[in-house]
Write a structure and sequence with these properties.
The complex is a heterodimer of chains A (about 300) and B (about 400). Chain A has about 300 residues and is an alpha/beta fold. Chain A has eleven helices and 14 strands. In chain A, helix 3 (about 90-100) runs parallel beside helix 5. The chains are: A alpha/beta (about 300), B mainly alpha (about 400). Bound molecules: adenosine-5'-diphosphate and magnesium ion.
Chain lengths: ~300, ~400
Amino acid sequence: MIEVEELRKEYGDLVAVDGVSFTAQGGAVFGLLGPNGAGKTTTIGCISGLRQPTAGRVRVMGHDVVFEGPASRARLGVVPQDLALYEELSATENLLYWASAYGLRGAALKKRITESLEVTGLLDRAREPVKRFSGGMKRRLNFACGIVHEPQVLLLDEPTVGVDPQSRVRLQELVKAQAAAGTCVLYTTHYMEEAETLCDRLAIVDHGKLIAQGSLNELRAMLGERDLLRLSGRFPSEAQIAAALAGVEGAEIVQAEEGSLIVAAPQASRELPALLAALTRVGAEVWETTMTRPSLETLFIKLTGKELRE
Amino acid sequence: MRYVWAAALKDIRRRLRDPLALLIWLGIPFVILALLSLVFRGGEISPQARLLVVDQDDSMVSGLLVGVFAQGDMAQLVQAEEVSEEEGRRRIDEGDGSALLIIPEQFGNAVLTSQPTRLTLLTNPSQSILPSILEEILSLLVDAVFYLQRLAGEPLAAFASGPPEGAAGFSDPFIAATSIEINQLMTSLTEYLNPPRLDVSIEIEESEEHKSLNLGALFFQSMFFLAILFAAQGMSDDVWVEHRLGTLRRALTLPPGVGGFLAGKLLAGFLLMLAMAVAGISAGAAIYGFPAANVAPSALWAATSGMALLVLFLLLQLFATSQRAGSILSTLVLFPMMMLGGTFFPFEAMPGWMAAIGRRMPNGWALERLKELLSGSATAETMLPATAALLATLVVGTWLAARRLRGGFVGR
Ligand SMILES: Nc1ncnc2c1ncn2[C@@H]1O[C@H](COP(=O)(O)OP(=O)(O)O)[C@@H](O)[C@H]1O
Ligand SMILES: [Mg+2]
C-alpha cells in the first residue's frame, strides 16, 4: 500500500507536485495519468526515496519514506522511466546486482533471476551483454530488475514509452500479473488507452495538481455521460456562442479558441442539427465536426480545457 | 555488506570488460619506467653527489680525508667543494649540495694522538640516495681512521708531542727505535690499507652498483604510484557514467541507499588498486630487491591511499557541472599533482623547494610513506598517525561525497 498525503515538491521556484494525495492498494494497478511535465516522475521519485519531499507525507507499507527510508525502500520495486542498466554486463549480472540489494542470496536468488528472465522472455539471451539487446528487450530487462526481488509495492514510470507494440502488450500483461499476485502497482502514463485498459483506479494530474481520482466508472460518471463535439470553422465571440447554445439542452462549452470549438452535450448525435442551427444563427461557419464518446480523454479535456497529447 | 560486495563486483566486472583504461593506467608509467631505465643503463646521466667540505683543521690528515673524494672512481661519483662553514650551512639549507662535511679543528691532532673527535655530516633532506651514499663512504673512512689510530697510535703520538723537554731534538736511539717501529707498522699497515676495508676503489664499485639499484628503485616507486594516481583519477568519472546510464538514480532507491552505492564504488577501486599494487610491488621487489616482507604492507598502503585519492577526485567530479567539466577539472588537478608529487620526477631529482611542496601534496605524502614501508624504514610512530590521517580523509571525503551525490548531483 502507498499512502500519499498532501505531497508537495518544489524545484526552486517551480512547484512540480502541488498537494497531491492518494492511496494505492495491494492487488490493484493504480494509474497516475497526466501529460508530460505534470509531475508524475517527481511523485514517483518522492515515493522511491530518490527525491526529498518539500512537504507532505508518503508511506510505503506503513513506513514513512523520510524517517524510515531503508525500511520503506526495502518494500519497493522501481522501474524507472529511463533505462537503468549496465550495458557491458549480461542480463543475469544486472539482475544479480539489483537483487543483492534486497538481501536475496544463494539458491533463492538464482531461482528468482531465472523466473524473472523467463517471464520477460529473456532467458535464452541471459548471458549476452545488454548492449546487444533491442530497445524492447532492454525495457523488459529494466522491468525484470524491478520485480526480481518480488516487491510488495511496484513503481512503474511510463514503462511502455518508445516500445514496439509487441513488447508493449507483453509488458502490460506482466503488470497485470503482478497486480493479480497481490502487488500494489503504481503506474504512470500519458497514454489514455493504456490507463483505461490497465488501471483499476486512476488519478489524473496536471501541472502538479491532482484534478480527479477514482475508478474508471467513477471518472466516467463525472462526465455525466456527455459526448464531446469538436467543431472547426469560423466562430463569433465565446459570449455569443454561449448565448446561442443556451437553447440546446445540456450543451456546454469546454473550450473555445480561434477556429475551433469543443462542446459537451448529452446525446450529441440527436442534438447535432439543433446545435449547428443555433451556431449558424449567430454567424458561425462550421467546416468539420467530430464526435467522441465519453472517455478519459474527454474527461481530461473537460477538466483542464486542453487535450492530452505527448 | 553483501550488497557492497555485489556492487564492487559489478564495477570490477565492468572494468574488466573494457580493459583499455586499465591498460593505459598501467601502461604509461611502465613505458616511462622502461625508457628511464634504458637511459640510465647507458650511464650517461649518472647524478653526481656534491659534497661541501668545511676544513677547519687544515692539517695533513684532513687534507688526506678530503683527497679521498677526489680520487679515481670516487671523483666520478662525488664532487667535493671546499667552502666556509657559513656558506656550507646556507647552501645545504637551500638544498644546494648533497651533504656538508665539517672537519673540526684539531681533527688531525686528535687522530694522531688517539683522542676522541667528531666529524659532522649534514645531509640534504630533499635528497635521499646521494647523501646516504656519502654517509656510507664517510663511515668507511672513519673506520679507516680508527684502524690507523689503533695501529700507529703510540709512535705517532710520540712524534706529535715533540721532543722531550730540555732536549734539542729526538735522541738517536729514540729515532732508531721509532723508525723500526714505524717500519714494522708500515709493513703491517699495508696489510690493513690494502685489504678491502680501505680499498677505496673496490668499495666505490660496490657503491656505484648500489647507487644504480637505488635509482631504479626510485623511479620504480614514482612510476608505480603514477599508475595508482592515474587509476584513481580514471575511476572517478564513473559517477558520471552511472548518472548517464540511469543506474545511479535506481541505486539510490535501493535499501542501502547512497552509502551502499559509494561503499561499493570505493571497494571496487580499492580491490583493483590492490591487485595493481600486489602485482607491481611484487615485481618491483623481485627486480630492485625490496624485502619480501615489505610487499604486503606496502601494497595495502598503496591501495588504501589510492582509494583516498579516488575519493578526492570523486569530490571534484561531483562538484563539476557536467562530465566534461568534471574531466577537465580533475585533469587540471591531476597534472600538478603528478608533476610535483614525486609521481613523475622523483623528489630526489627536484630542487629542494619543489620537493618540499611536492611532499605536501596528497600523492607526494602517500608516496613518501610508501617508500618508507618498502625500504623498511617505516616505524609505528610515523605510520600510525599517517594511517589515522588517511582513514580520516576517507571518512570525511566519503561523507561529503554522499551528501553531494544525494543532494545536487542526482537532481540534474
Ligand atoms: N531535477 C529537476 N529540476 C528542476 N525541475 C525539474 C526537475 N525534474 C523535473 N522538473 C520539472 O518538474 C516538472 C514535473 O516534471 P516530471 O515530474 O518529470 O513530470 P512528468 O514525469 O509527469 O513528465 C516539469 O516542469 C519539469 O520540468
Ligand atoms: Mg516522467
